[in-house]
Amino acid sequence: MSALQLARFLHGMTAHETDVRLDDAALRATLGHAALRVPRALSPGARIAAAAHALAHWLHSPSGEPVDTLTPIGTAVAGLIEDARVEALLAREWPGLATFWAPAFAPIEREGLTFGCLCARLAKALFDPSYRDGNPWVDKGVQLFDEKRDALDDYRAFRTIASRLANDLGQMRVRFEPDDGAWLRYRDDNSWLWAQPAAAAERAGHEGIEMSAATGGHGDDHDDEPPPAPDAPRYPEWNCHTQRERRDWTTIVERAPATSAPPPSLAALIDADRRAAKRMPAARASELLRRVGRQLDGDALDVDAAVAARIARRAGHAPDPRVFRRRVPHDARGPVLILLDLSASTAAHVAALEKRAAFVLGDLFDRQQRRWAVHGYTSDGRHRVYYARFKDFGEAFDAGRRAALLAADAGMSTRTGAALRHALALLRREAAGTRGAVLMIGDGEAADIDVFDPRYLVEDARHAARGGRQRGVSIAGLSFGAPPGLSTILGVGPGCVHAANGDALPAVVAHAAGRLTA
């Protein structure tokens, strides 16, 4: 297939003259407006495939799109999705053209987790409806693409899909690699799509940049950090697939979080919350009460005791008359640990609500003369579960500690199970025979860069909470943001309080604290 024949092919399809040349040195096809350069090394069939692919771009792709806001990985994924979109549009009009593209996809197999392998697998899955890959990222890309197949002309909708997939790769810490065309040789380098050359992508690849969702897709330089200390705390992790714990699977790294100046409005909101909390007589009256069962009188029926009494009566025994529940004074002196989720998913709004809640809780526990601490966590893979102690047991919540909590940034991921196990271990040292409690505050999401199954870390956190409760620790949750929040981990019931926003925050916080003794 000569350059002249390719030009005639394109002329027959478009009725426009096209400058087509075969290039001895080129590794990838390149195109401009009515100009196409094809590597001479391509087979005749691949040359036709390249010309047809260029035609798809000319007919259906916008050219010169701004690339300033895109990371190299974002640019590459956007190009991949655009390639699939325009080929689908062209094949819808001329189905026979797909036969020229099909041979390029045959060698691609379900293996390899590098950037190039994942992109090639997704490209094949988007081209061949019968192909089932099984990789969660690839399958997600297919699902998102298929949901929009009836709207292939909507370029912006598919750019949104590309952004979501690129962000997922960032969370997975997939290292960016420039596309050298080794997988799909007939496709061009996509430089025609963008207003600027994609040289930045090549630089990023040589520098070994890893994309990070925690930093919004910027480079992550955690490899420059020292490794965790040999004596760093290590904890198991529950594998829900094998129903077994992975021994010493996660590592806790205690360090202060990244900080930035808090918005001036946050301190004012906290002051207002604290003043409102002090004016809540109902909350103060219920702070030191707990509900107990098997009482001679009370304000509610103890169902378990009533059933036992009925069984005893039917068996001919004297029933126990203590079948009521009532609230009695409770010495709430056991230590309580407030555990804050400081991951990127909490964003600025939820993180601010968490900090406001921590201040109100601190005042509440001080009034109860109860020992308390406030800690926070994020993660960056199983070997880096970062844990910060803003205020520890026995320490004063002084100006310095308050400022550290206010300035803490939200970022990175959420390995909740590991953080909860560490919190429980610290609490056991403090409890000394009293019943301790953990109050978890966050949005309830559990995710990390090295975990692809969305269920895995939720089940692990659930397992950690169950273990703590079995050892006598009271664990409750206060979640902000979209439901279901922490109920996915702690279960639906009185032990978990959910608030969509900061409305009536002092009352919500007092209610959540009451769950620790109910």
TrEMBL record:
Residues 211-236 are annotated as: Disordered. Residues 335-481 form the VWFA domain. Gene3D superfamilies: von Willebrand factor, type A domain. This is Nitric oxide reductase activation protein. InterPro entries: NorD/CobT, VWF_A, vWFA_dom_sf. It comes from Burkholderia stabilis.
